[in-house]
Design brief:
- By secondary structure, the chain is mainly α.
- The chain contains seven helices and no strands.
- α5 packs antiparallel against α6 and α6 packs across α7 (124-140).
- Mean pLDDT is 86; it is low at 1-5.
């Protein structure tokens, strides 16, 4: 049996859909509407249903991409006293520091996702501590998240 048949369509059992075929039309309409919203707004109505979930799910991937493809680093991550003409060693140290910051922020969002999904037996206290640490750095470096 195919995977689609195991999970049903649109998250509904096949038997239910056979008895309620109008649900298929409604689901297709909603998916088309959401696709148009993403094209013209950049996001669809489902994002607002759980902004915390949406950010927690997507932010780690966005931060990892920024870490791997960034064009520069914030001046605040460079060692003190290097000025506006840092050496190669200063740039490497600054990049390592900024990569660590991005990784910690990403881990904070991953911890938020663990809490959001109630991924037990995850240790709530440990996940919450990672979340708080990541969010503190997110707030501190919010304007540094550029490429």
């Amino acid at each position: 049996m195919s995977k689609m048949m195991d999970n049903g369509w649109f998250g509904m059992r096949i038997g239910y859909l056979l008895l309620h075929p109008w649900e298929i039309v409604g689901e297709w309409w909603r998916h088309i509407k959401w696709a148009w919203q993403r094209v013209f707004r950049g996001w669809d109505d489902r994002v607002v249903w759980g902004i915390d979930y949406y950010l927690s799910k997507n932010m780690p991937a966005w931060l990892e991409r920024l870490r791997d493809r960034k064009a520069g680093i914030p001046q605040t991550c460079l060692p003190d006293g290097c000025g506006f003409d840092p050496s190669d060693e200063d740039m490497e140290a600054g990049e390592a520091k900024f990569n660590g910051i991005l990784d910690t922020i990403s881990d904070g969002f991953k911890a938020a996702m663990e809490i959001e999904d109630m991924a037990w037996p995850v240790n709530y206290e440990e996940s919450h501590a990672r979340y708080l640490k990541g969010m503190a750095l997110f707030v501190e470096h919010f304007f540094d998240l550029w490429d």
